[in-house]
Amino acid sequence: MLGVFRVLCLFAVFEAVCLLDTGMLFPRESSSREVKELNGRWDFRADKSPNRNQGFEKAWYKSRLAETGPVIDMPVPASYNDITQDPTLRDFIGWVWYEREVVVPARWIADEGTRVVLRVGSAHYYSVVWVNGVKVTEHNGGHLPFEAEIGSLIRKDPTQPCRITIAVNNTLTLDTLPPGNIQHMDDHTKYPDGFFVQNIYFDFFNYAGIHRSVLLYTTPKAYVDDITVVTDFLDNTGLVYYKVSVQGAATATLKATLMDKNGRCVASSSEPSGVLKVVDVNLWWPYLMHENPAYLYSMEVRLMATDSRSTYEDVYTLPVGIRTVNVTSTQFLINNKPFYFHGVNKHEDSDIRGKGFDWPLIVKDFNLLKWLGANSFRTSHYPYAEEILQMCDRHGIVVIDECPGVGIKDIRSFGNSSLTHHLAVMDELVRRDKNHASVVMWSVANEPAAEMPPADFYFKTLIKHTKALDPSRPVTFITDSNYARDRGAPYVDVICVNSYFSWYHDPGHLEVIPIQLKTQFENWYGKYQKPIIQSEYGADAVAGFHSDPPVMFSEEYQKAVLQSYHNVLDQKRKQYVIGELIWNFADFMTVQGITRVVGNKKGIFTRERQPKAAAFILKERYWRLANETGRLPVWTKYPCSF
Ligand code: GCB
After folding, report:
1. Across-strand partners of 164?
2. Is 447 a catalytic residue?
3. N or C: which end of the chain has fewer CB atoms below 10 A?
4. Which residue has the least CA distance to atom 6 on ligand 1?
5. pTM for this structure?
């Protein structure tokens, strides 16, 4: 009976309530698809006119940017804020303009049966894109990709170079995610003419610009537009439920082939949707839970279609990890085995690049995660680059995937237009990340003002919508420790609680931690009987500050906070606490303010990724937890292997 119910749930994924009508598959090369990265140096100008609107008034997109004013060099991908010595650009609010000319391979233009797609991995926050002066798309929101088909446009005049102009505006409003608002200061005895600030209610620098790769890729005219995969297993047989959607062809034949790591076909089908059965399945297991973690199959989808002009073949290959996720009132189960999150919260943040995508940083961070013995992280407080999730799939790092619903503190941000946008962002997030084995839970928000009356309807709707989008994964939202005020908790599957005892509450008093943390867990569990993750805890430590006895901001104090939390976590993890995520993996930049000394220093690593004393405490603990709760891979005998 349970099995039948589960299968019905899995099929419900394919009937999801998503309003988006196209897919957003990660661009991959194949025998039918080419990818051309447009990363590197772009021309750039910030529109510093008083209303920030000169670029639109003077139509900067119509000619080369250098013809309408001065331009500077700007790397893509990167935040623009820390690239120059200009303080007004670091703190700039408004439209900035990027431009680059591209040589498009002649065969892409010559072949009318080729779609040419321009894709932006993410740009913060609002973007408008033109090609040769013609607007091709706009996108509302950072952290998620958007694209436009530009083939017909570049074919109009193949002798012209392809000039791509992207205008990006980082202004936040009460309806954006995260929300913010602009405050004009009109008192001329205090402020210069036209002075304004952007108020935000979240604790990281609002880096802006083109943060992820811009690229062109091709597909044939008839193509695989989307693939949805949900997995299960029964005894030794893996089950891959899949659905392929096709665009550009009225009828097409399809072949879906699942291959193991050695490229051997283990199952195949000619249907656009169905189930692939894998005998003697290798399940996808988290890092440190199994000696052979992160096993990935490859699902090759091959499409053939014919129209009056031509025959098209498209090939797309998707990595697939076969695993299940379930939640009981006291446990989080992966492949029906209890999973304990011992991990971190991260940020996309580093010096010079800001939130710009950077492979060396990403690989370094994964090496540090594995060194630490971390088996999981939360994408606090927004969706991370797809390449990061691919690394999680490859290494078995479990992810709580969070949308940018952070800092929702103003009652006006609980209205209909905010909610509509929040639902749309969840649609885009689930569409992008649904096929990652590493993603085990959606987080719809972080510490909203959940005590406000409209929060009840808002979160009920949001969580219900997210569950309908993806019935195969649990949903949470991250709350602060005050259980009495909470209006979202009744609807979530897992309670995620942030608390900073002896830091924001009773600063300097380490002795309050045992009692306050115990009370926190007992209140939440008593009220909701749902498993709990300590989704944030920690303390600032300025690397190199030492004090014994410990005082706040010293490395010793950070260590002591962690140790006190760990004592209570060790009691409660035997009952219903299913995880602990330190705040934060690394120091990160914030707005300037009297509580932040060049950023938030709660990292156990510095911003340059060097360990503080707390990193060693955590490493010792995480490996101990792994030894107790999981199975260590054979190679961990050789500590230098990561
Ligand atoms: C929190 C927030 C996080 C902050 C952190 C802090 O509760 O979720 O964004 O950075 O506290 O250090 O204050």
Report:
1. 100, 131
2. yes
3. N
4. 203
5. 0.96
pLDDT band at 426; cut points 50, 70, 90: very high
Q: SS3 for 165-205, per residue?
A: EEEEECCCCCCCCCCEEEEECCCCCCCCCCCEEEEECCCCC
CA distance 478 to 405: 10
- The minimum-distance atom of ligand 1 relative to the CA of 446 is 8
Residue 5, pLDDT score: 52
Name the residue with tokens 């929101």: 141
**In angstroms, what is the span from residue 203 Cα to ligand 1's centroid?**
6
Task: Tell the residue nearest (CA) to atom 10 of ligand 1.
Answer: 203
User: What dihedral do alpha carbons 21, 26, 27, 33 form, nearest 10°?
Assistant: -70
pLDDT digits (tens, 9 = 90+) for 283-332: 999 999 999 999 999 999 999 999 888 999 999 999 999 999 999 999 99
Assign 628 a pLDDT band (cuts: 50, 70, 90).
confident
The two tokens of residue 365 are: 């961070």
Q: Are 197 and 153 in contact (CB under 8 A)?
A: no
Report the distance separating Cα 603 and Cα 539, nearest Å. 8
Q: For residues 169 and 94, is the Cβ–Cβ distance under 8 A?
A: yes
Cα gap 423→465, rounded to integer Å: 7
Each residue of 345-377: pLDDT tens digit?
Answer: 999 999 999 999 999 999 999 999 999 999 999
Residue nearest to atom 7 of ligand 1 (CA): 498
Span of 19-28, 172-181, 223-232 with lowest mean pLDDT: 19-28
Task: List the catalytic residue out of 447, 536, 555, 580.
Answer: 447
Residue-level pLDDT at 21: 87
Mean pLDDT score, 577-600: 97
Helices (H) and strands (E) in the chain, counts: 12, 32
Q: Which atom of ligand 1 is nearest to the CA of 504?
A: 13
Closest alpha carbon to 86 in 70, 100, 68: 70
Pocket test for ligand 1, best of 583, 584, 589, 607 (most atoms within 8 A of CB): 583
**Helical pair 455-469 and 416-433, crossing angle rounded to 10 deg:** 20
Give residue-wise pLDDT tens across range 206-247. 999 999 999 999 999 999 999 999 999 999 999 999 999 999
Mean pLDDT rounded to a whole number for the chain: 95
Ligand 1 atom closest to Cα of residue 478: 8
- The best mutation among 600, 604, 607 to test binding of ligand 1, ranked by most ligand atoms within 8 Å of the C-beta, falls on 600
What is the CA(444)–ligand 1 centre distance, in A? 16
Pocket of ligand 1 (CB under 6 A): 203, 381, 446-447, 498, 536, 583, 600, 602
For residue 406, give Cα distances in angstroms to 78, 140, 201, 448, 535: 22, 16, 8, 7, 14
Atom of ligand 1 nearest to the CA of 381: 9
pLDDT value at residue 636: 56
Cβ partners under 8 Å of residue 202, min gap 6: 178, 381, 406, 407, 446
